[in-house]
Write a structure and sequence with these properties.
mainly beta, seven-stranded antiparallel β-sheet, four-stranded antiparallel β-sheet, 3 helices, 21 strands, 26% strand, PEPTIDASE_A1, Peptidase_aspartic_dom_sf, Peptidase A1 domain-containing protein, aspartic-type endopeptidase activity, Aspartic_peptidase_A1
């Protein structure tokens, strides 16, 4: 989600267009409650013909490729074109018949073990602060998370930030303090060459201003998304994610999102605030923000890992 556009850098070659943004959203998360998570944005960076990216491609200014890298410390960067795409990425085809970046079917594993959840299709949407699963998948994953916390020094607690939260013997300062109590959630995609997306605890937990750890995967059915499953910002931290609209695929790789790519000239690194990623507006389309909800937004701090 973009709040304010601070600076755009358009070096004049076909492949490199770098956008820098002032980050004021997912790592300073605001949410009025479990039923109305906001989505906001001002740029059209979807895969549609009217998007900025498609229009730039029509003028041969850049290839129809978008990438972003979200840092757990609150920064990151976004780029247009394929000049900064690294080698060794995991690539997965996306549906050509969907207006969203819809994945191949996936099987869900928790702590390395099959969960029985199969043929799960997810939409990658960095305009969503959190990740959302349809009711049945959400309940199944939450049950496994709770079972995994048996005999752990955590107690359930009510927190105004999110529906499911836990407290420890003392307030947590960051996700790093609590991540070892939780297990990794893995999506293994079919019809691919062993492509999988690992969601370590840092990719589905937040720490609130009260020092509680909360579950950053929400009930999408309850949020108005029906059975749509959405991989949001919280699950994309620490990864460079690339949306290749020319080859109808999406890719990701672990990356240090606190540093700008080495191939950017040093002149462009000066006076650049850490930027943020793209908003494709799935939540806004399906569950518009209600009037006055900004007054009840809850500030969540310490996404730093």
């Amino acid at each position: 989600m973009f709040k304010w556009l601070r600076k755009s850098i358009f070096p004049y070659n076909q492949y490199r267009i770098f956008l820098s943004f002032f980050n004021r959203c997912a790592y300073d998360l605001k949410n009025p409650g479990p039923y109305d998570p906001p989505a906001a944005g001002v740029l059209g960076l979807s895969n549609g013909k009217a998007s900025i990216l498609s229009q730039l491609r029509s003028f041969d200014l850049t290839r129809n490729v978008l990438g972003h890298c979200l840092s757990g410390k609150g920064g990151g960067f976004l780029f247009l074109g394929d000049d900064l795409v690294p080698s060794g990425m995991s690539w997965m085809p996306v549906s050509a018949n969907s207006k969203h970046y819809l994945s191949s079917p996936a099987e869900v594993f928790f702590d390395g073990k099959p969960t029985g959840i199969k043929d799960l299709k997810v939409v990658f949407d960095s305009g969503s602060s959190y990740t959302y699963f349809g009711f049945q998948v959400y309940e199944g994953v939450l049950t496994l998370v709770r079972k995994g916390l048996t005999k752990k020094p955590l107690d359930t607690v009510q927190d105004k930030a999110l529906p499911i939260c836990w407290k420890g013997t003392k307030p947590f300062k960051s996700v790093h303090d609590v991540k070892n109590y939780f297990s990794t959630l893995t999506l293994k995609f079919k019809d691919t060459q062993n492509i999988q997306l690992e969601l370590q605890p840092e990719a589905y937990l937040i720490v609130t201003e009260d020092g509680n750890a909360c579950f950053g995967i929400l009930n999408g059915t309850e949020a108005g998304l029906g059975d749509l499953n959405v991989i949001g910002d919280i699950s994309l931290i620490g990864k460079m994610v690339v949306y290749d609209n020319e080859k109808q695929r999406i890719g990701w790789i672990s990356a240090d999102c606190n540093r700008l790519p080495n191939s950017l000239d040093s002149n462009y690194k000066e006076d650049i605030q850490q930027p943020y990623a793209a908003n494709f507006g799935i939540l806004e389309e399906n569950h518009p923000k209600t009037q006055g909800s900004s007054e009840s937004n809850v500030r969540v701090r310490n996404r730093e890992l």
